Amino acid sequence: MEYTRLGKSGLTTSRLIIGCMSFGEPNRGTHPWSIGIDEARPVVRAALDAGITSFDTANVYSDGTSEEILGALIQEFGVREEVVIATKVNGRMGPGSKGGGLSRGAILSQVDASLRRLGTDYIDLYQIHRLDRSVPVEETLQTLDDLVRSGKVRYIGASSMHAREFVRAQYVADLHGWTRFVSMQDQYSLLMREEEREMHPFCLEEGIGVIPWSPLARGRLAREWGTVTHRLETDEPGSTFYNQAQESDRAIVEEVGAVAAERGLTRAQVALAWNLHQPAVSAPIVGVSRVEQLEELLGAIDVKLDEGEIARLEDPYTPRRPVGF
User: 175-190: per-residue pLDDT in tens?
Assistant: First the structure.
């Protein structure tokens, strides 16, 4: 396993991060394809054995049960001080002003709930799960700074937003001497490269780690074009992410397949290797629900694409409207 720091921060992560959206009770929340603790146990064990140190979840994943499963397994394996637990806040978890969003009251209420579910007294990376534009950014940032000073949170991160919004948030933090975001979790794959225009150059200049979500485009890059799966059929949010430029997307997916066939690799390995080659990317977040999937993706770390292969994969891309925030 390879390791890297998130930007210029002192937080070290494995080059792959396990995304825990697939963990959770299927009858809770909006993820009917999620897996319970008995199915998640061998996945987490295999990830740890492979040297993966970072796990990303969110309070809203399967109505909090993703955090519960991750926390229980980390305790069971006795590795709390060896791993990075990342979770998120913003999504609606209950009624009232403290049940969601990024107000001071909501953040303080929800961080304590996440700590209880995770069974830990601190969160390594606490991320805002999108921007809450109804709350002054100063209120959100001061509250996050208070959490870092209290010891409940070690580092803070952000997720998909416009680059200008992220620039302003970092400026406001600097202006007041508050804790800066050390990471940006954004949607980035061969089918969605709009972050290359402004967000990633800013992150490179400022020393901010990028931990992309959906590096395989919800699995579209891992299969032949048009393949339908249970998750694709039931993934309501994801169904809106990849419907703008279907002809160019098809060309990209087919090129991924061609490079994979030539190299004796899987499509997922090629698409993930491309993501790992990008200069702004610290560690892609990969969702897995079976050990076999994890083993396949681990193979991408050692794949070195040449300039010609990278050009072939990138050339069909056409501009599109950013989605996901």
Answer: 999 999 999 999 999 9
C-alpha distance from residue 130 to each of 67, 276, 297 (Å) = 18, 23, 27
Query: Which runs of E-coded beta strand occur in the chain?
Result: 3-5, 12-14, 17-19, 54-56, 84-89, 123-128, 153-159, 181-185, 209-210, 285-287
| Cα dihedral sign, 58-219-319-240 | negative
Please give the single-letter amino acid code of residue 125: L
CA-based R_g, the chain, Å = 19
Q: Catalytic positions, please?
A: 61
Q: Are 107 and 149 in contact (CB under 8 A)?
A: no
User: Nearest CA to 213 among 102, 86, 321?
Assistant: 86
| Cross-strand partners of 159 | 185
Distance in angstroms between the alpha carbons of the first and the last residue of the chain: 31
How far apart (Å, rounded) are the C-alpha atoms in residues 43 and 175? 43
Confidence of residue 234 (pLDDT cuts 50, 70, 90): low
Nearest 5°: the CA angle 310, 53, 102 is 90
Pairing of strands 123-128, 84-89: parallel
Closest CA to 93 of 84, 101, 85: 101
Q: How far apart are CA 47 and CA 84, in angstroms?
A: 13
- Structure confidence by residue, pLDDT tens digits, 247-276: 899 999 999 999 999 999 999 999 999 999
* Average pLDDT rounded to a whole number, residues 12-25: 96
Ordered by where they begin, the domains of the chain are: 3-219+274-304 (3.20.20.100)
Neighbouring-strand partners of residue 204: none
Residues 130 and 161: beta-carbon distance below 8 Å: yes
Nearest alpha-carbon partner for 111 in 96, 125, 131: 125
Residue with token string 């579209």: 220
